[in-house]
Amino acid sequence: MSTVTDKFIRYVKFDTESDTETELTPSTPGQMILAKELKKELEEIGLENVSLDENGYVMGTLSSNLDHEVPAIGFVAHMDTSPDFSGKNVSPQFVENYNGEDIVLNKAENIVMKVADFPELKQYKGQTLITTDGTTLLGADDKAGVAEIITAIEYLAKHPEIKHGTVHVGFTPDEEIGKGADFFNVKKFGAEFAYTLDGGEIGELQYENFNAAFAKITFKGRNVHPGMAKDKLINSMLIANEYLTRLPNEEVPEKTENYQGFYHLISMEGGVENSTLQYIIRDFDMDNYEARKKFVQDLCEEFNQKYGEGTVSIEMTNQYYNMREKVEPVKYIVDIAEEAMKQVGVDPMVIPIRGGTDGSRLSYMGLPCPNIFAGGHNFHGRFEYVPVESMEKAVEVILKIVELISKR
After folding, report:
1. Mean pLDDT to the nearest integer, 58-83
2. Which of 47, 60, 170, 351 stands the most exposed, by the fewest C-beta atoms within 10 Å?
C-alpha cells in the first residue's frame, strides 16, 4: 500500500489544468487521463460500483460491514488544477526537516519563497514540505485531497476488521473553472451527506462560502480620426475607466478579509470603439450580495443616461451560493468533522471559505457537503506547498469521521 505522499507525487505529474474556453467537460484531455488512472486504482483497491462517465466523473463505493444502519457518507475532491498558472511538467521538491528559513525553489532563476512574505511557514519547522521548483504550481489544490481520500479508502478496504458504514468517493473535473458539479449525479453517488477535501491549511473546517456572480460589462464608443474628433469621438476606454473608478476602492480582495465581500476586476480589454470589464462579485450575506449586483447594474443605467442608451451593457450570471443555508439544518455533520479533528490531535478552525468549492453547489443539489482541509498553502502559483504531515492528518480525519459515523 503506497503512502499518501507517494500517491500525491504521482498525481501531480498529470497535467490536468482546466480551461475556460473549450466548452467541454472535462475541459481538457489530461483530466480524463487522470480520471482513468483513478478508476483503475479504485478497482484495484476492491471498491464496488466503480464508474467513470463521459464527463470525467469518477465514483466508487465501499459497502458497509456493520450489522446496523448508519448514514451513507461521501468524500469528494477535484482533479483539475487552476488555469491561472501552469500545471504542466510539475516537478515537486522535498524540504525535509524544514529549518524555518527562506526556501530556494529555483536557484538558477533566483526564485525564493521568503518567510517574510509567507510567515505561516514557521509553523511547519521540523516537518517535511513538498514545494514546486518555482516554474509551475504544485497541484495540492486538489490532488492532495484526491490522495488523502484514496489513501483512507484503501486503508479501510485492506482492514476489514475496522467497522464502517457505506462510504462513497467521488472525483470531479473542472472545479477551478466553476463547473465541477455541472454533471455530478447526486442520486447515483448515493451518499446522504459528504465532505470535500479541498481546504487549505491543517485544521480548516468550512460550511460557509461566498455567494458569487460573474459580470461582463461592455462599453461602446465611436472612433473618428483624432484630427477631426472634436465633439464626435467617444472613447470607450475612458468611459470604462470612469466606471471602474465608481466602484468602492476599499472593497477589493486585497483589502478585505473574513466575512467582507468585494468586487474583483479580473480582466480589462479595450480600444476606442469597444471595451470590456470583467468582474467577480462576492458576499457571504445574501442581502448584501443582491445589493452588490444591483449596484453594478444601476451604475450601467446611470452611464447610459449620461452617455446615451446602449453605451453600456451588462451580462451577469450567478455562479454559486453560500452553502450555509443547506448545511445548517444538518449542522451535526460539521460537528462530527470537528470532533474527528480533535480526536486525532488537530485543532479545528471553523472559518468561512473566501471562495467557492464543489461542496457549495452539491449542497444545493441535495448533498450537504462541508469542506475539510487538504493541507496546502498558496494555491494557484509558484509558491504553493503542502506539508506531508498535514496530508497524513487529513487521512486520519477521514478515518475518524467514518468511525464516528459507524457508532451513531
Report:
1. 97
2. 351
